[in-house]
Task: inverse folding
């Protein structure tokens, strides 16, 4: 179990570094979302389920949806209406 925790911590570091070097905004949001999901798994391993649920709901859920809506509003994400 200790090795699994080390792998998750290494993945958190990789996510944090890659989000700062990413040039694509959409990729940055997806990396941030995966960071939040891994962090919620770490909270579960630390036996803190209340923080894990909060991290999953707010970090990966609500914040990511707000980022996607904002990217859609500033036309950083192209929808189906432009393909026609």
Result:
């Amino acid at each position: 179990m200790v090795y699994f925790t080390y792998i998750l911590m290494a993945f958190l570091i990789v996510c944090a570094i890659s989000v700062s070097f990413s040039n694509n905004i959409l990729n940055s949001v997806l990396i941030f979302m995966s960071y939040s999901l891994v962090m919620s798994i770490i909270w579960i391993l630390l036996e803190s389920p209340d923080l894990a649920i909060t991290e999953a709901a707010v970090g990966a859920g609500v914040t990511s949806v707000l980022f996607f809506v904002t990217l859609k509003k500033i036309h950083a994400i192209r929808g189906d209406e432009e393909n026609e």
About this structure: The helical segments are 2-21, 25-45, 49-73. The first helix runs from residue 2 to 21. The mean pLDDT is 88.
